[in-house]
Design goal:
Strand content: 25-35%
Number of strands: 26
Bound molecules: heme C
Number of domains: 3
Radius of gyration: 23 Å
Shape: globular
Largest sheet: 6 strands, antiparallel
CATH topology of the largest domain: Jelly Rolls
CATH class of the largest domain: Mainly Beta
Length: about 450
């Protein structure tokens, strides 16, 4: 899903960087640092957003100077986990080396404020919708969030209002309380889908993570909320998402407690395409390792899963790896019908950030291409997030179970049948709890 940038560029705003040659004076906050924070940090680091502190002003940022230096020098911030050696991404958040040098230079030079006349205009953030929705669908009642404790994923089925088939060219999911919604998704549940079929509309359910994205069920994700993500466009050369008439929606919500009791009532805004497009944008769960078995204590268990492309003209536009608390890293590799192989994405996995990556250019996946996911898990006692290093772990919906799959966004002919997009193949044909074969035997190396 292509993110529509949250940050509105203010006229005349440029990243000054260190004034080369002009003077050797250390970077100042007003002249050099603030433009970088506006462009790269404030979407999350401002009041009411997900980050723990604001970086809007010198007063806000100064106490965090050392932490900022450390966070940017180690590339912990902004959050971004793709290995730069593979793939190019339209939503790449990484700072340039020049920006890192400026921030580090500012801290090393005493974190001075500088002169107010050098300040860029404040960044303006659009409050309210970033799209002009033709249709808005809201959770019928607010969900109550306790002050403390872990909150499992919540699934709430909401009656759709789709008397006709529609095509959606952009979507935006908006929590009423962004401070508590860690991330969220809104799924399309077409008539006849088995997922959440028994759910009473408006009621929150837990443990419904499986079965959401069986191709035959046609469940697709319409809207997503991630801190700093903003609205999403499905228009890649004219493509749009398909919602069959009579569909319902399921809101999937990952809330975090913030120390006081509060509530959230999220909604989804949709921009409808004026007419049926030539290409369809579809999100699939891609290679899925429902057979996985991760041995107790193993600090680097490798899990391999596979699908084979069944359509003629599919192109990959998006990848979002999904694992749970033992997940370490994730790679997506294509083995083309010619036998050539290519790593399309490789990255560290961090459960707290369910990030997605938009390919800068759609990647053609000819029919017969095998998409292989290779993931590693740390099921040892050294993993501080590991719920229990003494247990063998199998596929399952709860955080103490594991998953290895990736939501993959594809565009293909609007006349094609999404159910034919992928066939499970290789190790993904094995029954639950039966691991193997290994990557080496799959790729012949
Ligand atoms: C997508 C949202 C997002 C963006 C963009 C972002 N941050 Fe953060 N930042 C967070 C969140 C959430 C936390 C707290 C959780 C954590 O530390 O991972 C955080 C934590 C931090 C911390 C504390 C780290 C620590 O070690 O405790 C610093 C410092 C920081 N951010 C600086 C920055 C700077 C500087 C930028 C821009 C160059 C930036 N962040 C961009 C969301 C963001």
């Amino acid at each position: 899903m292509r993110a529509i940038p949250v940050f509105l560029v203010v006229a005349g705003l440029t990243t000054a960087g260190v004034a080369m040659g002009a003077s050797s004076s250390a970077p100042t906050f007003d002249r050099d640092v603030l433009p970088i924070l506006e462009k790269n940090c404030q979407s999350c680091h401002r009041p009411g957003e997900i980050a723990p502190m604001s970086l809007l002003s010198y007063t806000d940022a100064r106490p965090w100077a050392k932490a900022i230096k450390n966070a940017v020098a180690t590339r912990k911030m902004p959050p971004w986990f793709a290995d730069p050696n593979y793939g190019h991404f339209a939503n790449d958040r990484r700072l340039s080396q020049a920006d890192i040098d400026t921030l580090v230079g500012w801290v090393d030079g005493g974190a001075v404020e500088g002169e107010a006349k050098d300040k860029p205009a404040p960044a303006t953030f659009q409050d309210g919708w970033q799209i002009k929705p033709d249709m808005v669908i809201e959770m019928p009642t607010p969900f109550l969030i306790p002050a403390t404790g872990t909150i499992n994923y919540q699934y709430i089925r909401v009656k759709g209002s789709f008397p006709e088939d529609v095509w959606v060219s952009a979507a935006e999911m908006r929590p009423s309380n962004p401070a508590v919604l860690h991330h969220g998704k809104v799924w399309v549940v077409p008539p006849g889908s088995k997922w959440m079929a028994d759910a009473t509309p408006g009621m929150p359910y837990e443990g419904r993570e499986t079965g959401r994205n069986d191709a035959a069920d046609g469940n697709d994700i319409l809207g997503k909320f991630n801190p700093g993500l903003g609205a999403q466009s499905f228009d890649i050369g004219g493509s749009a998402k398909f919602v069959p008439k009579g569909s319902d929606l399921v809101f999937e919500l990952h809330y975090t407690a913030i120390g006081k009791e509060t509530s959230d009532q999220s909604k989804l805004g949709l921009v409808l395409a004026k007419h049926a497009p030539v290409t369809r944008y579809f999100l699939s769960s891609g290679p899925t390792a429902s057979n996985l078995l991760i041995p107790a204590g193993d600090s680097n268990a490798e899990v391999v899963s596979e699908v084979t492309v069944g359509l003629d003209d599919a192109k990959l536009v998006y990848v979002q790896p999904h694992m749970h608390l033992r997940g370490k890293d994730f790679e997506l590799r294509a083995i083309y019908p010619t036998g050539e192989s290519e790593t399309l994405f490789k990255g560290v996995f961090d459960f707290n950030w369910q990030l997605g990556y938009d390919f800068a250019k759609p990647i053609p996946l000819p029919k017969g291409t095998r998409l292989i996911a290779i993931s590693h898990f740390d099921n040892s006692a050294n993993n501080k997030f590991n719920p229990d290093p003494t247990k063998d772990v199998r596929w399952g919906p709860q955080n103490w179970d594991e998953m290895s799959n990736a939501f993959v966004g594809l565009i293909f002919s609007a006349n094609d049948d999404a159910a034919k997009l992928f066939k499970r193949s290789g190790p993904s044909l094995l029954p639950a709890g039966r691991p193997g074969p290994t990557l080496a035997s799959l790729t012949g190396h």
